[in-house]
Structures are given as structure tokens and as C-alpha cells.
Specification:
The complex is a heterotrimer of chains A (977), B (261) and C (256). Chain A has 977 residues and is mostly helical. Chain A is built from 36 helices and 6 strands. Chain A has 7 domains: 125 residues, Helix Hairpins, CATH 1.10.287; 110 residues, no CATH class; 127 residues, Cytochrome Bc1 Complex, Chain D, domain 2; 118 residues, no CATH class; 97 residues, Cytochrome Bc1 Complex, Chain D, domain 2, CATH 1.10.760; 98 residues, Cytochrome c-like domain (Cytochrome Bc1 Complex, Chain D, domain 2, Orthogonal Bundle), CATH 1.10.760.10; 132 residues, Cytochrome Bc1 Complex, Chain D, domain 2 (Orthogonal Bundle), CATH 1.10.760. A two-stranded antiparallel sheet of chain A has the order 1-2. In chain A, a hairpin with a 5-residue loop joins strand 5 and strand 6. In chain A, helix 12 packs across helix 25. About 1% of the residues of chain A have low confidence. Chain C has 2 domains: 110 residues, Carboxypeptidase-like, regulatory domain (Immunoglobulin-like); 91 residues, Cupredoxins -  blue copper proteins (Immunoglobulin-like), CATH 2.60.40. Chain C is globular, with a radius of gyration of 30 Å. The chains are: A mainly alpha (977), B mainly alpha (261), C mainly beta (256). Chains A and C meet through helix 1 and helix 2 of A and helix 1, strand 9 and strand 10 of C.
Chain lengths: 977, 261, 256
């Protein structure tokens, strides 16, 4: 230490110390200020300031445009008017001053009079209370005194009120006078303001966004709690919660702090980049009148992410690919949030968020990708192995055909070749590849799989009922093709050698039934003939309906289908089984339950057949075939796949990425990779895993877009985060509609019909629009429930459209199923199930109906008898016979239909006879038309039932009356009732 | 200028001033000593500091640092108490909100960093005391007090760790508190648990042992959270403050910091 | 240091802190905004595009069979040719030619209505153009039932019956659409097409295959020729102020 100076008892050099302390204090101060600054200067403030500035610029530009639009001459003229008026007023200044002085004086008088009146009133009220007390006391003297007081005060009050009112009147008249005198100026100013309205209001908005000194002060650190312009925007969502294991906590969404234009329209252009873009489809999302207003649903319910975050990275924004990731890291310092379980879904998978609330609706309208994925899950049968606890996938039929009688249908050789590689025979099949996948490609494993397939066939054949089919009668393949294309087979089946499954995306239900190419190589003609004549004789639970084919028709179609063969496939040889390998497999199963020694003993006791069958049974248990196929002995077996009900919430570390390093560690990438290459996670593990431990999920040959559609759904299978009361309506009505939709999907009604504006898959084969099966919109409102019930059980009972080649098939529904369909239609149209009995119409209605029926020429399209169309007319313009109406249609619906057919079935050929006005009312052309001389006899006919011409005209001018009359004509004149 | 001087003189001579500031600015050693003794804050500070006490290479200044950090913790902790609610619904999200929304939410970060630094400081202090032999007579008692303070610091750290209520917190405390099960006699899975019986009934079981008392339940839950919060904010700091007073007094009493052994 | 100086310095620092960081985010906007273009009534120009549509594949001889409705049959003494391809002497009629790109400004629809007449059980005209907001009058001049079923994609669909002779229906389209198909559900051979545009620069080729679009301001345009079965063809032209441009389309190669 240096020798101390000046003061002897100081140890340290104080100048030095001062320096140290000074510098460290400054350092501390700087650090503190830096800390405060870091805490204050958040990125969201920069976004808000930027948006503010851009909006201000845009408004300023708009204001300038408005200004330019102003006709300057006009403005100048009015300003001159204003100036003139002001001058005139100035001239009258003396008058005004006098009036205003008087007004002030009167104002004072008014105030005083008012005060007096009020005082008197309050005294009166007091007195009345006293009077009341006096009455209670019963003291006569007191009572009398009080009464007198009350009366006096009441009188005084009335007097003062009159005085007050008089003064008020006077004041009003004076004010009116002044206003009158000023009216010229006021008028001119108003005109000026009106002219400048657009510009002025825009200028006001610009001014609000200007950065004046108070902007800086109000947004300064420490001051910004008072009235900041830059502030957090949050919305608290009750019922939509975060599940944090111990409890559920309502979400608090702060996304709009940066996404300032989300609920506003007009920010869709290219120049507006996120986060300043409007949300797409504002009619459906976020606007106040949409079903999902922002204040009730926020953002994270659908999109995921950390609701309370106000920072770009912490909110959980996920880049869709590496390129975007690099850009974000560079531009925004993005970091992956390791501990966030629910990152924001990438834009293309946003629809996954719909499932949380809308799962009960089965078909989620407005979602394209989601619905396609749902159909794929349905057709591929994912639900058959993986339990998915949502309405759309519960209690569905098995996706694959029954194998109980398969021995009577195909040969074991075909079965072997098919199981080995289904897409080799039929590229569009939904059955996946279980065998010969990348993780089972070693030589040993190949032999094992051959043994397994042999064993499966052996087992299934041993369980299957056998049967012989007499060969089909000869048929004409050309007629058969005609029938196939036109009688309705094409609604569910294609027959195309070149077809690939992905070609039909997104119309998945074109592949509802199998592609019937090469049928000749698969089945015998006898089986096929018997099958198409009556599918239920082979499988009582089949969804394939009967088209009520005659023997000849069936023979023709059989001939057509059987004409396609693939000899190369038929001649493929089946490899011999390596018995050693097979026996090893059997031992590996036996040793699970028995000691090694007894397993060997058991094996030795089995003969060839028994060995194959044993191995077959075990193999079926390994691969879970019963999930898709109905197999003897496996009716109640549980599906073998992982439950997917909450797959979208599964923590990422629970997904097995194995040794694969080029798949990003996100849920969506894992699921997509798994769907497209199910065995990939065994890569590099062949040494570690035994044969039985290898992954078993089969390969569906999915294209990328098929996989993405399914991924969109799986990402939506999450833990519940919406209170039941907040979900889309879950009531008996939605349940009825959901049940109906499930049935419609299972039986592919949309293959032929248009239901909820989707379907008509058969359109790709049937060119003539008139030959298409009908649009089933408003079916519930239209037909009688009992009739529909009977019709669905037996469509041959009535033919509404005899000109159609396509036939409504007989599905052989159970009553419960038919009731589901009827209930679906009625619930959709909100029809009252009860239908009153129609009363016989009076003669007037019947007459008017008959005459107008003729005038409107209804018979041009509606035959009066159930005959087919006349020569030269195509099916496009004919309509069902009206004789069928009373037994089929609801009598309360027919008048509404005639009045406005387009409101029930959009695009219907039935014309509207009553023009719809802009205000929603309908106009009848009949009254006016009746004036024409050619309708004189009709007029005379109708006049017989009316007292005067006015009455007739009134009747005919009212569309509601006319349509009722027409209905009455159909009900009571046409039929013999 | 003269007026200013007169004004100053008038103020300093007034009764109010004298009642607040007993001693003027010291001009000699006596006055210096008086200033120290007469002031509650300054009297904690020794009047004279020995030369040896300023050798940082010897003292490391860790004790002072630990105390300084304790003060930082108290102040930042107090500020955090305005926003943080120790219930299972709010604990985690209040912490998130402090980070995202609250002004000066950086107090939470400070509190956490200071906590880690304080634990390091007290360990280093303990090492230093050991290595300089400052536990030797007459300072044995102070060493013990110091050890208790160490334990209290670690307990503060332990109880505070639970408060963010995230996965790390809950599981760390689960594992940590599970150890209490193994306590002899009063731990349900420890040796001698069956010892304490009354009429054939075990008194010490999973719902009544030391661990139960610690975490207010059979598992970590809302009860644990509030209990740890109270311990963290009031219970342990209070005890620690008392013991620190003893600790500092003892140091002074025994001749100041790093006086000869 | 003098304690006064210290206080003063801190105060200055504090003030500095407030003023400097009061902005909180005065970053320059990242993207320039563009002011919206001023809207004004456009003046008609003097330029014109005219030309001819060639089609050398011959006129099909098909005839419309009106047997289904005896009234229709009775309205004609000679057979009526189908309207899908009307090609006389190698020139194609009923081709809708319009300016697809390059039109700027707004145009108000004319006061007169466009007429769509049903006469002799065919639509007259078969192809026409109409502006958005312009009145369309649909008249039934026959004594049989017709219904007018319009099938637009961007506009509202309608299907109105016209059972009485002389009945008229007034409609308007409010969104641009090329082309809107009209059909009659009673008489399936009837069809018409309307091109709905928000500017008046369109024309339909006549029996001699010629068309003319005038009133164009100077500029570069893309014009498209549309035919109901032969598809569309586009060409780019440059029109000088008061200039005329001649364009030819050939649909023969398109058909095939």
C-alpha cells in the first residue's frame, strides 16, 4: 500500500477508493438502467408502433384522396356562404347581444325559481312524513296542524312549479329565436361539414395516431401504467382452459398484442405481412357476427401455443420447414421451446383445432383437409386397430371383408399372393402391406414371413366354411359393361387398370368399394354371380347392397367383370416354406407359455397341418387381422394398436424416433413419417430387436397429401381443453345428425346422391345430368317419415323417376339403421315429426287449383300418370308423377315447395312460379295474367266460386293461397281420393 | 449568498433538525465515534475496522456478499409478492405473466439468480472460515450458528424452488421430500416407524409422518405450495434474521472479522 | 465530489433516460405502404379493336328436334339448326370477345336493359354481354311454358317459370362472371350464355364472324375470345389513342 496522505489513520488510498467506488457505482447504475430498459423495451411494443405508423400512413393517404375528391369550387362556395352569413350576423350583433343578455337574466331567474320549487318540494315531503307520524299518534290537534301545513305547502309548490314552467317556456322561446336567427349560419356550416365529412373523420383518426409529445410521455418507462398507447391486448376465455394436471386454468390469449389486424378486414393484401394480416374467412372466424367471435374463443383454442406469452419464440410459433426456421432464427432470434407441450400448429394443420369442439358433428363443415383425413381414416380402417375415442370412429363396421367363408370365394394360392402384397394385384386397395417391409428384409426374416403367410392361409382356411358355386349362366359382357356403368355399380366401384389411389384424392369415396379390375383372376364366375345377385347369402353383415338384378343382368355383369384377368399374376409361384424356420417361429411362441423342454415336446407332437394352423393363429394374433376382418374365434378380441384418442397431446419425448436423425422432432413429422414409412423407426436396430419385437404397423402406401390429411386429424386428437358446455352444441339433435352421417359414410350414400351439397361421385361415369340420382337436400321436410321408412327397406315398392337407369339399391337395413336415416333427415330440416292428417279441401280451392295447374302448365314436366317420358325428350326435364304425392310427400311441405323450390334444393329443375322480391315477399303473376283474353274461360270457371272479381283477384294475387290451392288439386283432384 | 448561509444555519440550529440529526457532520474522531454509536443503521458497522479485516484475499468478502444477497432477495421477493399467488391455479401462470407482462417482472429473474449466488456465497464463506481457522475458540459457537444459517439458506432455496410450480419444481421437491419418509422413528418408511404405536395402531404412517407434515399431504399439491410459500417468505427469513443478528454480533464481539485467532 | 453536483448530474441523467426511451419503438416500418389509387370516372377513349373469327372445320348439319313440345314444333316451318357451332363460310358466330386485362377505372352500366327473348323455343340472343348492375329483361314470347334457369358461379342462381306469353322477368347481376349459362328445364335444347363484365368492352361475333369493340382508351390489353364448346383463346394488343387494331382468332385448330 502506498503511504497514506493527510490523515494518518486511513488504511487505503482514498483517492483510489473513490475512483473504485465511483466507477463501480456508474457500472451499477448502467446495469440497473440496462435492466430497466430490457424489462421495458419488449418486442411487441415495436410491432405495435410499426403497425400504428403504417396505419397512420395509410389513413393519411386515404385522407389525401378524400381531400382530392372534394370539389374545391363547391367547398369555396360554401365557405363563402359561411362567411356571408357571419357578416350578416355581425350586422345583427346588437339584437343578439340584447337577446343574450335577456337570456342570461332569465337563466338566473330560472335557477332561482327551480331552487325554490325544489326546496318547497322537499319541505312538503318532510311535512307529509310528519303528517303520517301524526296520524299514527292519533293526536287530533297534531293531525289537524300537520294537515294544514301539508295543504299549504302543496299549494305553494304548485304555484312555484307553474312559475318555473312559465320561465322555462320563456327561455325556450328565446333560445328558439336565437337559433332561428342563426339558422342560416348553422345551415351553411352543416353543409360544409357534410362535404368534408369523409376527410375530417379520416383526419381525426390520423391525429389520434400522431406521435405528439404526450405519446412519448405516456409510453415512457414507469409512466406507461397510466394511459399507454402501446399496451397488451388480452382476452380471458372462460371454459377454454389449459390442463396443468392439478387443475384447469382458463386461457388468457395475448396474441392480438402483435397480431393487431386479426379481427379487422382490409389487411389481406400482399404488402401486409404477418403479424399484420387479417384472419382468413372472417365470416366464419373472429368477427363479432361469426360463430367464433374473438372475445369468446381467442386464438390458442384452435391454433395452440402458449396463450399468455407476448414473445414470438415463447408463444410457440413453429416453422413449417428448415428454410423458414433459418429465416426466423436470423430475423427474430427464434428458439425452439423445449418445454412447451402445445406449440402453435403450422398453418396448414390449423384445422386440427376444430376437433376439440366439433368432434361430435362427425362431418366438420368448412374444413377441407380434416374431412378428407376423416374419410381416409374411415376407409383405411385406422380405427379398427387403434382405438380413437371420438364419435366419428365409434361403433363403425369392420373395414375389410368377412373371412368366414373365404374358402368358398378364392383359392389359397390367391390368398397367399394377395396377403404378401395386396397392391401388386390391386393398386387402389385399402388393404395395407404387412410383409416384406424394410425392417424385415433380411434373408432370415424373408423366410420367416413366407412361413407366416402360409400359416395364416392355413389357419383361415381351416376355420372357413367351404362351399361350391355352380358356374354362372352365360352372359353378354358388352351388355354387362353397359349395366355396370349405368345401373348403379359405378356409385361405389371403379374398374380401371391404371388407377392409382392418389388420383382420386380428394374424392375418397370413389374408392368405397374395391376396384373390380382383374376380377377373373380372383374369384370364380359362380361365386361372383351369386354374390351380385344376393350379397347377403355370402355375408349377412355386408354393406354391399342388392341392385335387384334379374338373372340375365347378373349373368351379363358377371361376364363383363370376369373378362378381365391377369394371367401373369395367376401364374406367380408360391415359394416353398423353410420348415426349420417355421418350427423356430412356433417354438418362439410356445416358449412364451411353457418351458423350453415341454415346448419342444409339444412341437414334436404336432403334425404338418397342426403346426401350420398353430403358427397361423399366433401370427393372426400378432398382426391383429381381426381388426379389419371378421374371423371365426376373434369376435371379441381387442384391437392391437396404440390408442390414439390423445395422440395429439402426447409429449414429444414419448415418441420413438429410434436412430433416425433426419426427421425433425415434432409430433407432426413423426406421425407423417410413421404413416408413410411405418417401419422406419427400426432402422439400425435389426441387431438389437428380435423378430417378434420388430414394428408391425402395415404400410398403406400413402401419398404425401393422404398422409397430411390424416396427420391433420391426429394432431387434433388431444386431451380435452374445452368445457363440455362450450363445445359445439351437443344435444339430441346433433347426436341424431351425427349418427346419420356415420351411416351415410359407411354405406356411401354420397356415391350416388348429393347430401349436404357433397357427393354425386357417380357423376364421373354418368354424363347426362338428368340421369343422376337426386339431391337429397330437404328430404326430411319433404317426405312422410313412414313412407321413407318403407322405401329404405324396399326401394322397389315405388319408382319415382322411371326414366332413371340407375337403381336405388336394396341395402337390407335393420330397423334401427333406417330410423337413424329418417331421424337424420328430419333433424337436419328441423321437421316436426308429427304430421297431421290432411283435411279434404273445399270446392273453391280444388277449382282454383285445377285451373291454375293448367295455366302454369305443370303437366309439361309432371306426368299425370306414372309413365316414362315421351319420345324425343331426355330425362333432364322430367319430374316425378304427381299421383305419388299424397302417399309420399308431406302435405304441409308441398305448398312451400311450389312457392320457392330453390330454397329447398338449390339448382333444382323445378322453376319458381312466384318471383321473389328484394324484400323477401313473393309475387303471383296469375291475377294479371287472367286479364288476357286467352284465359277468359279459365276466369269464368273460377268466378263460379267467388262473389266478385276483386275477391278472385285478391285470392290469385296471394301466393300463399295459390300454392295451397295447387296442393289441394294434387291431393284431391288428381288421385281418386 | 449570505442569505443562503443564514438560512442553512437557521435550519441546522432548529429543534426539529436536532431531534432528527443528533450529531452534525463529524470533524474529529470523537464526533465520528458518536455518529456511529448514535445511529441504528451505522452502529451495526464497527467504529473501527482493523487493518487485517480489509484483506480480501484473506476474507473473500463472502459473508458480506451473502448478506448483501440476502437483502437483494428480500427486496426482490417483496416485489414479487405483489403478483405471485401460491395456489395451483395461479402459481405457474403468475410466474409466466411476470415474465411476459408485469412491469419490472425482471425481479423474478433477479430473485432466482441471487438465490443461486447466495448459496454459492455461503458455501464459499464456510470454506473460507474453515481455512482461516476462524472456528477455533472462542468462535466455536459462532461456527455452529453459521452452520444453522447454512441449513436455513438451503431450506430457503428448497422451499423457493417449488414456487414456480413447473414440472422441474414439482418433481424436484417430490424427490427431495421423499427423503423425509426415511427419517428414523418419524418417517413412515424409516427404521423404527413401527415403534410408535398406541393400542396396536401405528402412529406413524404415510398420512402422519414427517414427510406428511412437511408437504401438507400425501403428495405434493396445493397444500405443499402454500406451506412452502409461508416458510419461504416468513418463517425461515425470520429465524435467519435472528440468527444473523447473533452471528454478526458474535463476530464483532470476538474482535472483528479476521482478527488474530 | 460536491454533493450538489452529484445530484444535478443524476437529475440530468434521469431526464435523459425519460426522454430518450420514451419512444419505446420508433423503428422504421419495414415495408412501404402504397397509397390506394385515386378513383375517378374514366373517360371513354377512341380506340377500337375489331376482327374476325375463323373456323374452317365446317358447320355441323345437326337440327334441333322439338318433338317434345308440339307448341314449339308448330312455331317453325323450317327445321332449326343447333346453336352450338354456327359457322358459315368458314367464319364462326356466337363467339364472345372481351377485354380480359388492362382495363382501368370504373364504368357505370347503361340505362337500357339487355333483352333475352324466348321466341320459337330458342333463346335470342344465344350469346350476349351485359354489364354488372345493368338490367336484364327476360321475356317469354311463346305461348308455352318456359322456365329460365340461370347457373352462375359467382352470382346468385335463379330458376323462374314463365308460363304466360308476354311474361317478363327483370334481373341484375352484381359480380363479374364469364360466362353465365341459361337453360330451360322444359326444353332441354335451349341454352344461352351471358358474359357479365364491369366494363363495356365486349362484343359478340356475328354471322360473318366479325366483331368490334370500341371506345377504348389507349393502352395495352389482353382480349379473350370465348366459345361454348371450342374453348377460349387470348391475344395481347396495344391500342393507340383513337387507333384501331385488327385481330383474328382461329378456332379450327382448337377443335378437334
Amino acid at each position: 500500500m502506498a503511504a497514506p496522505k493527510k490523515t494518518p489513520d486511513r488504511h487505503y488510498n482514498f483517492r483510489g477508493m473513490n475512483a473504485v467506488f465511483a466507477w463501480s457505482s456508474i457500472a451499477l447504475l448502467v446495469t440497473t438502467l440496462w435492466m430497466v430498459w430490457d424489462d421495458y423495451a419488449k418486442p411487441w411494443k415495436r410491432f405495435q408502433a410499426e403497425f400504428r405508423e403504417r396505419e397512420r400512413q395509410q389513413l393519411a393517404a386515404e385522407a389525401e384522396t378524400e381531400k382530392a375528391k372534394l370539389n374545391q369550387n363547391e367547398v369555396a362556395r360554401i365557405q363563402q356562404d359561411v362567411a356571408n352569413e357571419e357578416v350578416t350576423l355581425e350586422g345583427k350583433r346588437g339584437e343578439f347581444d340584447e337577446l343574450e343578455a335577456t337570456l342570461i337574466k332569465i337563466g338566473k331567474n330560472l335557477y332561482a325559481a327551480d331552487a325554490r320549487s325544489r326546496t318547497t318540494k322537499s319541505l312538503l315531503d318532510t311535512e307529509r312524513f310528519q303528517y303520517d307520524s301524526a296520524l299514527q299518534s292519533g293526536d287530533e290537534e297534531r293531525i289537524a296542524k300537520r294537515r294544514a301545513e301539508v295543504e299549504r305547502l302543496a299549494a305553494k309548490h304548485t304555484e312555484q312549479r307553474n312559475e318555473l314552467e312559465a320561465i322555462t317556456e320563456l327561455k325556450k322561446s328565446l333560445e328558439a329565436e336565437i337559433k332561428n336567427k342563426r339558422s342560416g349560419l348553422a345551415d351553411a356550416e352543416k353543409r360544409l361539414a357534410g362535404l368534408r365529412l369523409g376527410y375530417d373523420s379520416l383526419q381525426e383518426r390520423v391525429a389520434k395516431l400522431d406521435k405528439k409529445i404526450d405519446y412519448f410521455l405516456l409510453n415512457a418507462p414507469l409512466m406507461d401504467f397510466v394511459l399507454p398507447a402501446l399496451k397488451i391486448d388480452q382476452v380471458i376465455l372462460s371454459g377454454l382452459y389449459n390442463d396443468i394436471n392439478f387443475t384447469d386454468v382458463d386461457r388468457v390469449d395475448r396474441c392480438m398484442t402483435c397480431h393487431l389486424a386479426a379481427t379487422r378486414m382490409g389487411f389481406e393484401g400482399e404488402e401486409w405481412k404477418q403479424p399484420f394480416r387479417s384472419h382468413p374467412r372472417p365470416k366464419l372466424f373472429l368477427s363479432a357476427s361469426s360463430p367464433h367471435p374473438y372475445t369468446e374463443f381467442g386464438c390458442t383454442t384452435c391454433h395452440g401455443g402458449l396463450d399468455r406469452a407476448t414473445d414470438f419464440a415463447r408463444a410457440g410459433h413453429s416453422p413449417i420447414d428448415d428454410e423458414q426456421k433459418r429465416g426466423w432464427i436470423e430475423k427474430w432470434g427464434w428458439e425452439k421451446q423445449k418445454y412447451l407441450d402445445t406449440p402453435i400448429l403450422p398453418a396448414k394443420y390449423s384445422e386440427a383445432g376444430c376437433i376439440g369442439c366439433h368432434a361430435g358433428n362427425v362431418w366438420i363443415s368448412g374444413s377441407e383437409l380434416l374431412d378428407i383425413g376423416r374419410q381416409l381414416i374411415d376407409k383405411m380402417g385406422c380405427y379398427a386397430c387403434h382405438k380413437i375415442g371420438y364419435e366419428a370412429y365409434e361403433d363403425l363396421p369392420r373395414p375389410g371383408p368377412s373371412l368366414r367363408k373365404v374358402a368358398s370365394k378364392i383359392s389359397p394360392g390367391f390368398a397367399y399372393k394377395w396377403i404378401s402384397a395386396p397392391r401388386e394385384f390391386r393398386p387402389t386397395t385399402w388393404m395395407p402391406h404387412f410383409f416384406f417391409q424394410p425392417n424385415t428384409s433380411s434373408e432370415e426374416n424373408l423366410k420367416r414371413q413366407e412361413a407366416e403367410i402360409r400359416a395364416i392361409v392355413a389357419y383361415v382356411w381351416s376355420q372357413s366354411a367351404t362351399g361350391e358355386y355352380a358356374p354362372a349362366p352365360t352372359g353378354d359382357a358388352e351388355r354387362g359393361q353397359d349395366l355396370f356403368d349405368n345401373v348403379g355399380c359405378a356409385g361405389c366401384h371403379i374398374r380401371d387398370a391404371e388407377a392409382k389411389r392418389d388420383d382420386f384424392f380428394p374424392q375418397i369415396n370413389r374408392l368405397h368399394g374395391p376396384n373390380l379390375i382383374r376380377a377373373g383372376s380372383k374369384v370364380s364366375s359362380g361365386w361372383l354371380y351369386a354374390w351380385i345377385k344376393d350379397p347377403k347369402q355370402y355375408n349377412p353383415d355386408t354393406r354391399m347392397p342388392s341392385l335387384r338384378l334379374t338373372d340375365q343382368e347378373a349373368a351379363d355383369i358377371t361376364a363383363y367383370l370376369m373378362s378381365s384377368r391377369e394371367p401373369a399374376y395367376e401364374n406367380l409361384s408360391i415359394p416353398e416354406v423353410d420348415k426349420t424356420v417355421r418350427d423356430e417361429l412356433i417354438l418362439s411362441y410356445l416358449e412364451n407359455n411353457f418351458t423350453i423342454e415341454s415346448s419342444h415336446a409339444k412341437l414334436d407332437k404336432m403334425d404338418e397341418g397342426e403346426r401350420n394352423r398353430y403358427l397361423g393363429e399366433e401370427t393372426i394374433q400378432k398382426y391383429g387381422c381381426w381388426g379389419c376382418h371378421d374371423l371365426e374365434g376373434f369376435e371379441n378380441a381387442k384391437p392391437i394398436g396404440v390408442e390414439l384418442t390423445e395422440e395429439g397431446s402426447k409429449p414429444i419425448h414419448q415418441f420413438d424416433f429410434g436412430h433416425v436423425h433426419d426427421v425433425p422432432h415434432t409430433r407432426r413429422d413423426w406421425i407423417k413419417t410413421k404413416l408413410m414409412e411405418p417401419r422406419i423407426w427400426d432402422q439400425g436396430k435389426e441387431e438389437v430387436k428380435s423378430y417378434k419385437e420388430l414394428y408391425r404397423m402395415p404400410n398403406f402406401g400413402m401419398s404425401e397429401r393422404e398422409a397430411e390429411a390424416v396427420v391433420a386429424n391426429v394432431l387434433g386428437f388431444t386431451k380435452a381443453y374445452v368445457l363440455k358446455s362450450r363445445r359445439a352444441d351437443q344435444n339430441p339433435e346433433t347426436a341424431a345428425i351425427a349418427a346419420g352421417r356415420k351411416l351415410i359414410t359407411s354405406y356411401n350414400c354420397q356415391g350416388c346422391h348429393l347430401i349436404e351439397d357433397q357427393g354425386h361421385a357417380i357423376k364421373s361415369v354418368i354424363q347426362d345430368v338428368g340421369q343422376l340420382p337426386p339431391n337429397l337436400a330437404s328430404q326430411g321436410a319433404r317426405v312422410q317419415a313412414e313412407w321413407l321408412f318403407g322405401y329404405l327397406h324396399d326401394p322397389s315398392s315405388v319408382t319415382m323417376r322411371p326414366w332413371l337407369d340407375v337403381r336405388m339399391p336394396t341395402f337390407g337395413f335393420k330397423d334401427a339403421q333406417v330410423n337413424t336415416v329418417v331421424s337424420y333427415f328430419q333433424t337436419r330440416d328441423k321437421t316436426d315429426a308429427f304430421l297431421s292428417t290432411p283435411t279434404v279441401a273445399d270446392p273453391r280451392h280444388r277449382a282454383v287449383g285445377r285451373v291454375t295447374f293448367g295455366m302454369l302448365q305443370c303437366a309439361k314436366c309432371h306426368p299425370a300418370g306414372p309413365q316414362a317420358g315421351t319420345a324425343g325428350v331426355t330425362a333432364a326435364e322430367l319430374a316425378p308423377s304427381l299421383l305419388l304425392a299424397p302417399g309420399r310427400l308431406r302435405h304441409d311441405w308441398v305448398p312451400e315447395w311450389i312457392k320457392d323450390p330453390q330454397s329447398f334444393v338449390r339448382g333444382t329443375n323445378m322453376p319458381a312460379n312466384f318471383a321473389k322480391m328484394k324484400d323477401g315477399s313473393y309475387q303471383s303473376p296469375l291475377a294479371q295474367a287472367l286479364e288476357a283474353p286467352m284465359f277468359a274461360s279459365q276466369k269464368a270457371e273460377m268466378m263460379r266460386y267467388f262473389d266478385s272479381e276483386e275477391e278472385l283477384t285478391t285470392f290469385l294475387s296471394d301466393p300463399d293461397q295459390v300454392v295451397v290451392a295447387l296442393r289441394d288439386h294434387i291431393w284431391w283432384n288428381l288421385s281418386s281420393n | 449568498m449570505q442569505q443562503l448561509k443564514d438560512l442553512q444555519k437557521a435550519i441546522v440550529k432548529s429543534q426539529i433538525w436536532k431531534s432528527i440529526f443528533r450529531v452534525g457532520i463529524p470533524t474529529d474522531n470523537r464526533k465520528r465515534a458518536l455518529a456511529m454509536l448514535g445511529n441504528v443503521v451505522l452502529h451495526l458497522h464497527p467504529i473501527k475496522v482493523k487493518k487485517s479485516g480489509l484483506r480480501m484475499s484473506y476474507t473473500w468478502c463472502m459473508g458480506g456478499t451473502a448478506f448483501f444477497l440476502f437483502l437483494v432477495e428480500t427486496i426482490t421477493g417483496l416485489l414479487l409478492m405483489f403478483y405471485y399467488r401460491p395456489t395451483v391455479e395461479y402459481a405457474y401462470f403468475d410466474m409466466v405473466d411476470l415474465r411476459e407482462v408485469a412491469a419490472f417482472g425482471i425481479m423474478r429473474e433477479l430473485h432466482r439468480w441471487a438465490a443461486h449466488a447466495m448459496v454459492i456465497a455461503v458455501w464459499l464463506h464456510m470454506f473460507r472460515v474453515f481455512m482461516t481457522g476462524s472456528y477455533k475458540p472462542p468462535r466455536e459457537f459462532n461456527w455452529n450458528v453459521g452452520v444453522i444459517l447454512l441449513v436455513l439458506t438451503l431450506l430457503l432455496s428448497f422451499t423457493g424452488y417449488l414456487l414456480p410450480w413447473d414440472q422441474l419444481a414439482v418433481w424436484a421437491i417430490t424427490v427431495g421430500s421423499n427423503m423425509a419418509r426415511a427419517t428414523p422413528l418419524i418417517g413412515a418408511e424409516g427404521p423404527g416407524a413401527a415403534f410408535l404405536t398406541l393400542g396396536g395402531q401405528k402412529l406413524i404412517h404415510i398420512g402422519s409422518d414427517a414427510r406428511f407434515g412437511l408437504i401438507a399431504g400425501r403428495t405434493i399439491g396445493g397444500g405443499t405450495l402454500i406451506r412452502f410459500y409461508v416458510l419461504h417468505c416468513l418463517g425461515i427469513p425470520f429465524v435467519a434474521a435472528c440468527l444473523m443478528a447473533v452471528h454478526f454480533w458474535r463476530v464483532r464481539r470476538d474482535g472483528g472479522i479476521s482478527g488474530p485467532v | 465530489m460536491n454533493k450538489y453536483r452529484l445530484t444535478t448530474l443524476s437529475a440530468i441523467l434521469l431526464v435523459f433516460v425519460f426522454v430518450a426511451c420514451g419512444g419505446g419503438g420508433d423503428a422504421k416500418p419495414a415495408v412501404e405502404t402504397s397509397a390506394p389509387a385515386p378513383v375517378s370516372e374514366s373517360a371513354a377513349g377512341g380506340g377500337a379493336i375489331s376482327g374476325v373469327i375463323n373456323y374452317s372445320n365446317g358447320d355441323p348439319d345437326a337440327v334441333i328436334k322439338m318433338d317434345a313440345d308440339p307448341v314449339c314444333l308448330g312455331l317453325h316451318t323450317e327445321p332449326v339448326e343447333t346453336e352450338t357451332i354456327v359457322a358459315d363460310a368458314g367464319k364462326l358466330a356466337n363467339v364472345f370477345v372481351y377485354v380480359k386485362e388492362g382495363v382501368s377505372g370504373s364504368y357505370s352500366p347503361p340505362e337500357e336493359a339487355q333483352l333475352l327473348n324466348q321466341e320459337g323455343c330458342i333463346y335470342i340472343p344465344h350469346v350476349a354481354g351485359i354489364m354488372t348492375g345493368q338490367k336484364l329483361v327476360i321475356r317469354n314470347s311463346d305461348s308455352t311454358l318456359h322456365n329460365v334457369h340461370a347457373l352462375p358461379k359467382n352470382n346468385e342462381e335463379f330458376n323462374q317459370g314463365q308460363p304466360f306469353q308476354g311474361m317478363e322477368l327483370e334481373k341484375e347481376f352484381d359480380t363479374q362472371e364469364v360466362m353465365v349459362r341459361f337453360k330451360c328445364d322444359v326444353h332441354p335444347w335451349m341454352g344461352a350464355y351471358m358474359g357479365v363484365l364491369d366494363h363495356p368492352f365486349f362484343a359478340v361475333s356475328g354471322a360473318d364472324g366479325s366483331f368490334e369493340i370500341d371506345g377504348l382508351p389507349a393502352g395495352d390489353y389482353v382480349i379473350e375470345a370465348w366459345h361454348e364448346t371450342l374453348g377460349t383463346q387470348t391475344q395481347s394488343v396495344s391500342v393507340a389513342a383513337d387507333g384501331a387494331v385488327d385481330v383474328t382468332f382461329d378456332f379450327a385448330s382448337a377443335a378437334g
